[in-house]
Amino acid sequence: SGGDIEARLTDMQLGPIVRLTHLRNVDFLGQGTYAFVKLAIDIKSQTHVAVKIFDKKTLVVRRRLENLAVS
Predict the structure, then answer these.
(1) Nearest by Cα to 24 from 38, 4, 39
(2) What pLDDT score was predicted for residue 6?
(3) 48 — pLDDT class (breaks 50, 70, 90)
(4) Which residue in 6, 38, 9 sits closest to 22, CA to CA?
(5) What is the pLDDT averaged over residues 21-43?
């Protein structure tokens, strides 16, 4: 908890890190197969938000497997 939420938005070569500096991490809410969810607070409005962060590597592999199944 605490600190800025940091998400890595990537292409296949692992691109730049994007910092969502207007949000503060509050808590971990949960995790699924392809993403996890954090509770955050918008610093300016003091509004609580849920931030879903996807694992792009997993999504890319899944997409490739789906394309192979169709071929």
Answers:
(1) 4
(2) 53
(3) very high
(4) 6
(5) 89
Question: 26 near 40, Cβ under 8 Å?
Answer: yes
Pairwise CA distance, residues 27 & 39, whole Å:
5
Neighbouring residues of 47: CB distance < 8 A, sequence distance ≥ 6: 41
Distance CA 17, CA 38 (A): 17
CB atoms within 10 A of CB 47: 10
- For Cα atoms 21, 38, 8, give the angle at the middle one, nearest 5 degrees: 55
Residue 47 CA from chain centroid, whole number: 19
The Cα 18–Cα 26 span in angstroms is 18
Q: What is the pTM of this model?
A: 0.56
